[in-house]
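[retry 2/3] NADPH:quinone reductase: previous attempt timed out, resubmitting with same input.
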Amino acid sequence: MDLYEVQEATSDYSGVVRTDRDRPVPADDEALVRIRACSLNYRDLAIASSALFYPQTDLPVVPLSDGAGEVVAVGDGVHRLSEGDRVATPFAPDWIEGEATPAKVGRSTGGNVDGALAEYATFPAESLAVLPEYLSFEQGATLSCAGLTAWRALVEDGDLGAGESVLALGTGGVSTFALQFAELHGASTVVTSSSDAKLERARDLGADETINYEATPEWGQAVQERVGGVDHVVEVGGVGTLDQSLDAAAFGGHVHLIGVLAGPGGQVDPSPALGKALTIEGVMGVGSRAMFDRMLRAMAASEVEPVVDRTFGFDEVQEAYRYVEGGEHQGKVVVTVDP
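[retry 2/3] NADPH:quinone reductase: success.
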């Protein structure tokens, strides 16, 4: 079978190399999946780039946590899945249900165990979420990291409800899913971006307020002035944006710490967190399969469709990495696996 490995971390992703291996055989508790599509996350860039930091284990590794395909074989001990089931791959293959523990999140697909950028891959059968029929493989391949992260932050951890408000930083995968899940739950939304074109698209997707953060550097105060603060901030920037996110949050609000896209920044003043009694939560390990199942049921009830910005072919993987790094995408970038 054909697959890709991150063989070396480089500045131009030339270390992401197409190669071949024997097709794997599922163990007694595993399912063999014919992967049809995958999608990229910022984490995948960090693993493959010499310019970014990721607490990486030894290379080579098959990259990408997010994939979708159909089950083609199962081990002797598997009864939950059968041949032909359409499934999404797991980020944390050992976290099936319950609270996160070091053991449950110790292994991560595409990080310290082989991922989904291959024709075929095996996973613990209990870790695979079954896709609703209305989703294509390309759409299903966007969910494992970005979709489940946004869902867990807002719904599982944040208990998002109708009438609340959500601030999504940027228009990448997590933030776009946050906008969609906020709409799904009857919450109002604010979206930031440096691109007016992306903000227009966000309004088309349902954003109630948009702010160009280059034109309005103090966007946290702008959020306060426009909507009186927000109940939830989906914070994907890290230290570089956290001070503004704290300013944007309403009294008693939640700041969900997810990413570090803005890179390093200066010191963060904790006064807004203290003065407004904010809850600041780190979202790690993405989510369990049980959370994934709940997310899929909620999406299917309203047929929420993930936003796919662009699709690359299996021979265009390095180009896909560079496109994501360029930051021009809105939503998710997908690679079809059809050698």
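[retry 2/3] NADPH:quinone reductase: The chain has two domains: 2-142+306-336, 150-282.
[retry 2/3] clearing retry counter.
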